[in-house]
Amino acid sequence: MTKIDTWREAALTAGNAMWREAGSRASEARDELTRRTALARQPQPAGAIPPSLRLLLGELSVLGRRRTGVLAQHTARNPQPVMLLPGFGAHPMRMRRMMRALETSGHAVHEWGLGFNLGPTPENFAFLLGRVSQLARLHGEPVALVGWSLGGLFAREIARRYPDNVRMVITMGTPFSGDPRANNAWRAYQFVTGHPVDEPPVECDFAAKPPVPTVALWSPKDGIIAPRAAAGWPHERDRAVAMRCNHLAFASDPGTIAEVLHQLDWED
User: Fold this and answer.
1) Domain boundaries, given as residue ranges, for the chain
2) Burial letters for 197-234: b for 16+ Cβ neighbours within 10 Å, e otherwise?
3) What are phi and psi of 33, to 5 degrees?
């Protein structure tokens, strides 16, 4: 056999191996897509009532709309480090209006450091625990956590585990109470994350009130999360305050930003 024949045979063998590997990966991808699609098509439990279709359609009015409401001037009575945690599918840039308002009032504001929020994993949750601990050491005091929707679930669990590093938790439209399917986002969540909404890959107890001051901001206009799920019951939070904004507007609504600033002035 000539060298050319040897090279040709080697190339064919390598090519066949690559095609087999590509075929195997394609098959695995199809299986995973099928599994996630099945998760997204699960029926709505009878007792988990999400917001109405009318309210859900109302959320569309927020998309692409520039918030123009005037933000009231506020000077923090208790300037402190604050970390903002975005909602499911959102990037920290969606919270930039709130960030600027908190910074202007005197708070030291930090992003969560993970980019888009695509759900919990053991790795990103461990990162957040470390980041909050690092910020607490940097500032020499506990950090206030302000979480929007799914970001609020992260915040509550961080505070439950590391209360010495967290001053308080403020959630905005966060479904911490009741059935985790009492919303219009759980199917999309299951498709994107690949796990059932009530079986996250991180051990947690979202309904358990963290041992720090905990404020739940909720809205009767929320088209994504059921109001009761976001307001919770008295034993699950310290305060519940009703807002008048859509779910997708929590991080940019002037009234909600003013309420967050007010709650950050909480005196122990």
Assistant:
1) 1-41, 53-264
2) beebeeebebbebbebbbbbbbbebbbbbbbbbbbbee
3) -60, -40
Task: State the architecture of 53-264 in CATH terms.
Answer: 3-Layer(aba) Sandwich (3.40)
Q: Which distant-in-sequence residues (6+ apart) come within 8 Å of 188 by Cβ?
A: 40, 88, 89
Classified as helix, coil or strand, 148 is strand
Q: How far apart are CA 190 and CA 222, in angstroms?
A: 20
pLDDT in tens, 105-157: 999 999 999 999 999 999 999 999 999 999 999 999 999 999 999 999 999 99
pLDDT in tens, 37-64: 999 999 999 989 999 999 999 998 877 6
Strands 214-218 and 239-242: parallel
Q: By C-alpha distance, which of 257, 170, 264 is closest to 215?
A: 170
- 50-68-78 Cα angle (round to 5): 80
